[in-house]
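task queued by scheduler; priority normal; single chain, no ligands, no partner chains; default sampling; output format set to structure tokens
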Amino acid sequence: MSLADGPLPSACPACVALPATEALAESRRRAAAAGLVLSVPGLKDAAGMALAERTLAALPGVTAARVNLTLKRIGVTASPDITPQHLTEALSRVGILALELDPALLSTRESERRGRDLLMRLGVAGFSMMNIMLLSVAVWSGAEAATRDLFHWISAMIALPTLAFAGQPFFASALASLRARRLGMDVPISLALILSSAISLYETIRGGEHAYFDAAVSLCFFLLIGRYLDFRSRAAARSAAEELAALEVPRAVRLADGREQLVPIADILPGDLVLVRPGARMPVDGVVAEGASELDRSLLTGETLPVAVAAGAATSAGEMNLTGPLTVRVTAAGRESSLHRMADLVAIAESARNRYMSLADRMARRYSPAVHLLALASFVGWMIHSGGDVRLAVNVAAAVLIITCPCALALAVPSVVTAASGRLFRKGLLIKDGTALERLAEVDTVVFDKTGTLTLGAPVAAELDAHRPGDLEIAAALAAASSHPLARALAEAIAARGLLPAPVSDLRERPGYGVEGLWQGRRVRLGRAAWLGAEAGAETATWLAVDGQAPVEFRFIDRIRPGARDAVAALTAAGLRVRLMSGDARAPVAALAADLGIADWQAEMLPADKAAAITAETAGGHRVLMVGDGLNDTVALAAAHVSISPASALDAARVASDIVLLGQDLAPIADARRIAVTARRRIKQNFALSLGYNAVAVPVALIGLATPLIAALAMSTSSLTVTLNALRLK
């Protein structure tokens, strides 16, 4: 049953009301516990962070406001009477765009906890390794009898608890692999740790000359380095579906019996009336019942210009209401809304892309079974050769297992990714996903979004020198009274020229049309061409009309992002096919494509259209790099083989992407692919080095010439070689 079917009948009215009441109470409890969370996609530096915190802290009822500049979020602790609208309006007054997020749907703490956990285990292993090495040096220097045994027992008391604690990530992963009836890379790692410590404990108990606690702890330490590097390379990759769901407006103003009620979205049913004020985001899908306004749909569709709506017009959750109050009759809310359906599409696309298996995983599938078979064969062979000497056979098998332990393989990819990530970071690119470089090296097609990606996404008034100062002053006065993006851009451009607004009185905004007022007793208007009796052209423009004069056109351009031409030219020269897909109108898309030399372009595309086009490319055997910045791009970003978003993009787009472009310049995108190709070559070289090392070292271990300690030293040497090869990327 869907929400549209209405509630089920019940003999007990309280039985129907109670679950809803409990859900509302639980929602409020969660919100109170989590505080208020705002997304601030435009925040870029410490100055903006300080301004946001200072602005919110000055509000009565706000006790604390902290900005996370990395996540572009603000966490606010405030009294219950402070609503998110109070906060977003306060930030809007100082020029900061803020969007409310639902804190109950954000879950970044688990990732942070896992990172701290790995780092703590790495620190414990490193500290223990250094102490055991000090004791081992004494043994190697000639300590004998009771002194040697004492040092072995002290090493055991340090090593065994350390391995039990620090080796837990490998043991847990190995156990999960065995339960799934497969041999993952962590199975031979866990066996090597267990066998080396078990043999060392046995030798210590019987007073033997050799114990290998230092080898076991060193092995664990090096493996944890690889595991932590791998985690750090993936740490920024969070679920885009979560971020999209959190962007949904968690509450709406419902109109019931002529009264306004602020209720959770979960309580909104199809057929309800909701009030959406200017400056607020649309909380539901619906149809306008009363009012007229303009909607900014750029986050959903990529359209650069707001769309005029009146009674009977369809609206979607996530759109921004700009100029007039709207009463909307709900057709879908919550999980049934278009925004939530987009989140579901992103989740599906992410799960499909996450099936990509890295080179290391593919190597481990073949490598792990071979390691176990080799160790078993060595044990059986030495049991037969030695006439049943279990101690000798176990020592040789342990040496084989340690010397073939996939430590170098475990470091092969993270070390390269870390080195390449450092190089790309200096070029202005942040790698979020551990397999992104491998996938980037495989692409043959690049798809660009237009607004906010190839362009800066902000309209700029052009050719103001062609206008009379008097017209500019009147236009400035009218534009200052509107929240329309073109009006704001015009007001800023005129103010930058040092002109003051004309004394215009009786200013009124006509939702969906423009602004009008009185100047020297004459009616003046600024707005749409049709409202002023002018003929609209293909360019983005607004018009000024003064009684008794012909309307004057103010044109706007969206500036091309720096480096866009270089990036397109370099990618084309590298043999890649470049496409442009935009939700914008045909005229501006065609003009931009011609300017940048992109022959393959499409306009007026919906989010689902972009995702379908990329899916079709994939089905045709192509590997697609998607570069986009808007909410309308998130599904396409998640569906692509690999994706890049500018740092100025909406949070959800940055989360859905694998790589974030930190600056405005697009030129590093071509560098990123070239470095990715080099990185993949280094990864393959690392695999060859580790396998070559095994080809030399394994025979030595099989014939009994390598103790577990020598095996651990050889393993460490191979790990160091792999790391040094990765550092050549710098």
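post-processing summary
- Residues 1-34, 235-241, 352-357 have pLDDT under 50 and may be disordered.
- The first helix runs from residue 13 to 34.
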